[in-house]
Design goal:
Elements (H helix, E strand, L loop, with lengths): L3 E4 L4 H7 L7 E4 L10 E2 L4 E5 L4 H6 L1 H6 L1 H8 L4 H6 L2 H5 L20 H7 L3 E5 L5 E4 L22 E8 L7 E6 L10 E10 L2 E10 L6 E2 L1 H7 L6 H11 L11 H18 L4
Parallel strand pairs: 1-2
Antiparallel strand pairs: 3-4, 4-7, 5-6, 5-7, 8-9, 9-10, 10-11
Helix pairs in contact: 4-7, 8-9, 9-10
């Protein structure tokens, strides 16, 4: 377990310390590191979200609301207004499972929502550290558990996420995030789907799909995307895509229901997204 942990606006680390899952020797408050890492702007051909921008500030930004509904919905559904006013984007994507047994002893799913939106948008993440800055596809940030379930991302010791780069195009407006949960209050997803569609007429030029609540990391459903390319979306094509998305799913007893729930969630998301106007 890391001896030092960064602390920004949220409570994830504090929650895990209460559960005795994390016991860092030192907490470093990074809130005042640089006002620039909280900016929200469109420089040139990307839309930039600073990692220290709060969830509320991003969800309320007029350009984000117009061009990235999948982002707004993921942030709005993630937490209460009080938490959204405090929590930062960088901290949100690094949420860790609230589980005393953690990932080496249970089938714990990645708990976040915003990360699925970033994966579906093919966003990039900016990282900085002692070795200098680097940029990588956000989809590559989270790792599979493997033999090191306590290491959930590819961040090196001392590295910080400083921002996210979103693609720009009218197609980002045909996007949505659908979250299924036990109750309407702010719960983690039982299953969720982030869908972004680039249509030419009624035909899919490109589809991007990310699933939540069903894997140990935000899950890109490339097999499902491939079944949609060149086709119009109707219930049959949506069901075919959902079947492809979960064709390799492995269940563990009590979570077997998530396969059917995940399929139904994706079908609904695809059908709703295909009806959006841009």
């Amino acid at each position: 377990m890391a001896a030092t942990q960064f602390l920004a606006g949220g409570t994830t680390i504090l929650d895990l310390m209460k559960l005795d899952v994390m016991q860092p020797q030192r907490l470093v408050d990074v809130n005042r590191i640089d006002a620039d890492v909280g900016r929200i702007e469109r420089p040139a051909d990307i839309f930039y979200l600073g990692a220290f921008a709060t969830m509320a500030a991003v969800a309320d930004h007029p350009d984000v609301r117009r061009d990235y509904p999948v982002v707004v919905q993921a942030l709005d559904l993630a937490a209460s207004a009080q938490i959204r006013n405090m929590a930062t984007l960088g901290g949100n994507v690094l949420q860790r499972t609230r589980c005393n047994y953690f990932r080496d002893h249970c089938c714990a799913a990645y708990p976040g929502d915003f990360a699925q939106a970033l994966v579906a948008l093919d966003a990039a993440v900016e990282i900085t550290g002692s070795r200098g800055p680097r940029v990588m596809p956000f989809e590559q940030l989270h790792r599979m558990p493997g033999d090191t379930p306590h290491i959930e991302t590819v961040l090196k010791p001392g590295e910080l996420i400083i921002g996210f780069r979103l693609p720009v195009g009218l197609w980002t407006r045909r996007s949505l995030y659908l979250k299924i949960r036990d109750r309407q209050s702010y719960e983690f997803a039982l299953a969720s789907a982030a869908v972004v569609l680039d249509l030419v007429g009624d035909t899919v030029n490109e589809a991007r799909i990310a699933l939540g609540g069903v894997a140990t990391k935000p899950w890109r459903a490339r097999e499902a995307e491939a079944t949609l390319k060149g086709r119009a979306i109707d219930e049959a094509t949506a069901e075919r895509a959902a079947g492809a998305a979960f064709a390799g799913a492995q269940t563990r007893g009590d979570n077997a229901y998530k396969v059917e729930l995940g399929k139904r969630t994706l079908v609904r998301a695809l059908l709703q997204a295909s009806q959006l106007s841009v």
